[in-house]
Amino acid sequence: xxxxxxxxxxxxxxxxxxxxxxxASGAISPGDRIPSAREMAADAGVNPNTIQRAMQELxxxxxxxxxxxxxxxxxxxxxxIATMKHQLxxxxxxxxxxxxxELGFTxxxxxxxxxxxxxxxKTNGST
Amino acid sequence: xxxxxxxxxxxxxxxxxxxxxxxASGAISPGDRIPSAREMAADAGVNPNTIQRAMQELxxxxxxxxxxxxxxxxxxxxxxIATMKHQLxxxxxxxxxxxxxELGFTxxxxxxxxxxxxxxxKTNGST
Amino acid sequence: xxxxxxxxxxxxxxxxxxxxxxxASGAISPGDRIPSAREMAADAGVNPNTIQRAMQELxxxxxxxxxxxxxxxxxxxxxxIATMKHQLxxxxxxxxxxxxxELGFTxxxxxxxxxxxxxxxKTNGST
Amino acid sequence: xxxxxxxxxxxxxxxxxxxxxxxASGAISPGDRIPSAREMAADAGVNPNTIQRAMQELxxxxxxxxxxxxxxxxxxxxxxIATMKHQLxxxxxxxxxxxxxELGFTxxxxxxxxxxxxxxxKTNGST
DNA sequence: GTGGTCTAGACCACT
DNA sequence: GTGGTCTAGACCACG
Lengths: 127, 127, 127, 127
Fold this sequence. Notes:
4 copies of one chain form a homotetramer. By secondary structure, chain A is mainly α.
């Protein structure tokens, strides 16, 4: 037993993940302008270079594109967004299955427990 | 869009979670002696008081018990352990469903995707 | 007419290009360790971060890989190296054809002039 | 491996090359008046002496001539221009062959690759 | 010693 | 004002 204190992802990776999640969920729409790097950095209390790096990674993935002086924009390529969304989901699923496996549950047990959980939530009102 | 940079759980909560996960998975067996607070604190590079607080929480949940001079031990109550294990799992499941909902997937879609993921993993080797 | 004074590529791109060229030409062999970022930075009189960025780009392209504390190494994937080499060459060719087109030569003229140049070099000794 | 960071040609050489290229390509016609040194220097944000030196070199090559009070003009000698154009092209060709040789390609391979590149460009539209 | 990340602050080009 | 690049220097994890 050892403890993963400070097992943070790098900040720039967190920023990448949050932007992608925002696009996947529809909170940020295709074609939307995203705030300037300086603005985001100030909001997050983080160095602009850190945001810059996150933006570079997003652009490399084709998720955003840059217009010289106008700022950065979410891609209009909805197919790419759909692919990205399923990629994010699949990552979460794998990670979840791994966590459950560590707790000693087989995949079948896990599926049953999820179905049960959903059933329960439906019969009761909300959480 | 705002960024939850550095949103760590308190360290003592992380310790509690890891001990519970260790017991649930069988890495730590019922009746096992747990290392001293001092020892764990040194291992983790953490203040002994932090470990102390985690131990108090575990004892309050009945997961461990203290024998005056001999140290702390994992409970022998396997029903309690089973309950705890399912509680942990259910928390993970709720959290997972919430994440997937944020990505814009319904519970039905989520279940289908998990089943698909398991199927895929089975047909291929590992990875 | 305007003048492209300081039309430099970014330093990190120059570093990337030189490493790739070195690998393509065989000056750096598959599996070779490349100097540490700090060393290269000192050699080039450049900030270590600039080299770091170049290395990240090379790693992203699969041209090099990183071993935690041991340093960075050229990939052993000779197919990837071959592909990279032809990519570099094709880029040079496109750029060359573009330059010649700007001078007012058709592609056919360009090919003839190259063949003539090679013939000349062969009949005379070297340059 | 060492890095030739910032290995610019002297500015006046760049100016010479650009003027020659402009004439070769027809962007500047025989007999055309060339802007004053002062004007070009202002455009390029460069010291007038630098332009002056470039003009001297061009005049020495016979590419331009000076009329005492009227300014500088491109030569009318189309044979000289043709020669200059082929000289420029030959320089580019030599330089290109050298680059390809450094990448490890023989002259024969280079010629084949250029022919292939041209063929490809023809079959597809542009790009 | 290695690479990885981050901060603080600078200068540039573009419009 | 935007993004793009670069420097200087710091701290961390790994072994």
